[in-house]
Amino acid sequence: MRKITQVAVAGNNLKVYVEGALLDSNTVGHPHAVNTTTSPTSSTPAPAPEPTPTPPPVVTPINLVGINLSAAGFSGTTVPGVYNTDYTYPAESYYKKYADMGLKLVRLFFLWERIQPTLNTELQSAELARLMQSLDYAQKYGVKVILDVHNYYRYYDKQIASSNVPISAFANLWQRIAQKVVNHPAVYGYGLMNEPHDTNGYWPQAALAAAKAVRTVDTNRWIFVAGDRWSSAYHWPDFNSQLIADPWMRDPNNKLVYEAHMYIDKDFSGNYFDRSETFDPMLGVNRVKPFVEWLKQNKLRGFLGEHGVPDYSTSAMVSMDNLLKYLGENCIPMTYWAAGPWWVNYSLSLDVESGAARPQLPILRKYAGNTACSIIGPTS
To answer: Which intervals hold domain Glycoside hydrolase family (predicted)?
Structure first.
């Protein structure tokens, strides 16, 4: 007796598979021949292979810790000035040095009067070439750059929104810059203006016009919008409510990031006049909190564009350590003030003439390794 393992219809015939050796078609099945195909090894078809699961998208962590690089914005009272006498751009070695340390975000500051000596005209070719060379250096070492117009809301000491410097001219500057750099992969974003102050209430209009001008050219990269009153994080809510009065400035699709600055000395200036001053461990956190809470309340993104502490103060180092931990928890990037050439023996600098080890660096490198954030925060 044989066990039937499978039955199948084939045209007008019926195929029957049984266990064991082949049947002899001469002795069975008369008058119809028996198909003598060997029975399959299994009574059921082999299951179809499982589909390959789609891998999750690759999430690239953002750079949470970076540096300000000098010295294209130096000698602001001597403009345009003479290259390599009044100002310079950082050499390639600086990009390599800090990239090797894991500090791959650079805020590169330069002056409006040098990149565009006359309003509403083409950018100055030699200065533009220096800027593009800097971007090339950055790209070579995997560094991302925020381009920062370091002008304090002024052009040849005349305020934006005055008859001398109309808002349209400020927008024109940014449209021209964006047109030149839009295709460069090292550009992380556009820093519209360093530390606006005493703006007579016109900064929100100027920022809106400049941001929209950038968006006519580049719809993808971040636009960094500094706050009035020297961008003070501590004073931010009292001076910058009108910055987001226009709904366009609150639209997340416009990829805006609000930029504050914060120093922990008595007058908030970063000059650290009193070398005997000591600092509470949580002072940095407490001074930046008003800005961070404002961001959360309005569901916006933030950036601490400047913060620095003097090399001689151990209590300042503790404060900075706590600050960077807090910023990282909120996915808010920061760029330390400052690094690059020509600082001589400036106590806040990461690059000094003596070549002495800088106590700020281990703290920066510690938090540069934070890979928990994939996008600028906090937004909520």
So the answer is: 77-340
| Cα 116 to Cα 113, 123, 149, 172, 190, distances in angstroms | 5, 5, 11, 10, 16
Residue tagged 């699709």 (tokens): 253
For residue 164, what are its two tokens? 């001398």
The number of residues in the chain equals: 380
Token code pair at residue 170: 């400020």
Name 17's bridge partners: 6
Question: Span 16-39, mean pLDDT?
Answer: 56
pLDDT at position 29, please? 54
Cα(376)–Cα(144) distance, rounded to whole angstroms?
A: 14
Q: Kindly state the helix (H) or strand (E) to which residue 285 belongs, with its residue range.
A: helix 283-298
Average pLDDT over residues 63-80: 95
Q: What is the spatial distance between Cα 96 and Cα 103, in angstroms, rounded to a whole number?
A: 10
Total Cβ atoms within 10 A of residue 348? 23
pLDDT tens digits, one per residue of 86-121: 999 999 999 999 999 999 999 999 999 999 999 999
Phi, psi values for residue 111, rounded to 5°: -110, 140
- What would the two tokens of residue 173 be? 């500057």
Structure tokens at 101: 């340390």
Asked if residue 41 has pLDDT above 60, the reply is no
Enumerate the active-site residues: 195, 306
Return all residues near 368 (Cβ < 8 A) that are at least 6 apart. Answer: 63, 64, 65, 101, 102, 103, 104
- Taking alpha carbons only, the member of 329, 234, 245 closest to residue 286 is 234
Q: DSSP string spanning 130-163?
A: HHHHHHHHHHHTT-EEEEEE-STTEETTEETTSS
Domains along the sequence of the chain with CATH: 1-45 (no CATH), 65-368 (3.20.20.80)
pLDDT tens digits along 160-219: 999 999 999 999 999 999 999 999 999 999 999 999 999 999 999 999 999 999 999 999
Residues 6+ apart with CB under 8 A from 31: none
Instruction: Give me the DSSP letters along 31-79.
Output: TSPPP-PPPPSSSSPPPPPPPPPPPPPP-PPP--EEEEE-STT--TTS-
